[in-house]
Amino acid sequence: MGNEEQEHHVLSGVRCPSCRGAYSLVKFLGRKGDLYKVLVHCHACDTYGVGTARISEHSASFTPPAALRPPAPVSADDVLDIYIFLKDFDGDFRRLFGRGPVSKNVVE
Description:
Number of strands: 4
Mean pLDDT: 75
Order of helices and strands: HEEEEHH
Shape: elongated
């Protein structure tokens, strides 16, 4: 099987979980043995997804990405919360994520 034939065979019958449209292969993202991570595109709803394709000498299959629910819209409360946080944030991500300030000159 050539590359185009493999692509068609792997993606034939696989439908977008959002709209049931057909996928097309955008590119291969990585490979481990006969497993490939692939970026696919649904032309019907213009969404992208990452799936897993198994392509061996004798067969090919594709596991599509799961349907993802869109995130909830950003509310006015969300905007106010981030404004209050950022107003006084000093940029110290280590302290923010629990590692505390880092000092190179620690004396014990």
